[in-house]
Specification:
The protein is an all-alpha fold and 275 residues long. The chain has 14 helices and no strands.
């Protein structure tokens, strides 16, 4: 498929933004653009026959066997543009900042922009931290990333932060215009214009909607970004004070503190291990 370079650059915020992005982030953005163009081509083919701008859920399902990888795999484990590359070795006692620098490249720009937006919008530090961390687990796995992400961070962050990370995944499928959240077009492209969330997502949403902490995961979805914000390039250093105040860094290093989730950090650290 030939990519419309002008449209691709515009969706990212221009050539300057593209230069600042990691190879993993570029690959993810390229995949989104390819899916978008595929959905547009499908809509054009159906013009005059009730065609629509976005693919149906059935059409998204038909794309499964057109890809050499499964879309739920984490960005560390696949490169849709070619071969993966060797990763730099982690320090003996790795910190969260080390993981951002050496393993979270595929999601770092996105979560930094989300945290930056949350900070500008006057969110609490617990929610700014949730925005900073909410998609980083996608380095390992994308399926149910809200639950995976909350599990990864739960031993180290405030309870409200973990709650916000866990349930932002379910809430993102449900509009809440009163609080400033509209269903993003990105999901119409990714899941299909007629997509209905799985029953467990619906049940989770109904539970969280009645919860006293509902607003916390909702604030993550409000401050989430579904495209790169032009001319904005926040750096992790802008959030190190918040990390220092609210992230309980183990002295042994993440992955070596014998916590219930240490194996998850080691999996992100060593994605080339065959067993």
């Amino acid at each position: 498929m030939e990519i419309d370079r002008k449209s691709f650059l515009a969706s990212l915020g221009g050539a300057a933004t593209l230069k600042r992005m990691s190879d993993e982030a570029k690959a993810d953005a390229l995949e989104d653009q390819m899916l978008f163009q595929l959905s547009q081509a499908s809509a054009s083919a159906r013009s005059g026959e009730g065609g629509h701008e976005f693919p149906t859920a059935a059409e998204v399902d038909e794309q499964v066997e057109t890809l050499p990888y499964r879309r739920g795999v984490g960005s560390l484990f696949v490169n849709p543009r070619g071969n993966v590359k060797k990763l730099p070795p982690m320090p003996a006692t790795p910190t969260l900042v080390d993981f951002f620098a050496m393993r979270f490249a595929g999601t770092a720009n996105h979560v930094l922009q989300s945290a930056n937006l949350a900070k500008r919008n006057g969110m609490s530090e617990e929610i700014i931290l949730a925005c900073l961390l909410h998609d980083t687990v996608q380095a390992m796995i994308k399926v149910d990333h809200g639950w995976w992400g909350a599990q990864l961070y739960e031993p180290y962050v405030p309870e409200k932060t973990a709650f916000a990370i866990r349930y932002h995944q379910a809430l993102r499928f449900y509009e809440d215009k009163e609080n400033g959240y509209e269903y993003p077009d990105l999901y119409r492209r990714m899941f299909g214009v007629d997509y209905k969330p799985e029953p467990y997502i619906e049940a989770t949403y109904q539970m969280v909607r009645k919860h006293k902490w509902y607003i916390y995961p909702r604030q993550v979805t409000i401050n989430d970004l579904y495209a790169f914000e032009p001319n904005v390039n926040p750096q992790l250093e802008e959030f190190t004070d918040i990390i220092g105040r609210h992230f309980k860094q183990p002295k042994e290093g993440l992955g070596f503190d014998n916590s219930p989730v240490a194996h998850m950090w080691r999996s992100i650290m060593r994605p080339d291990s065959p067993l």
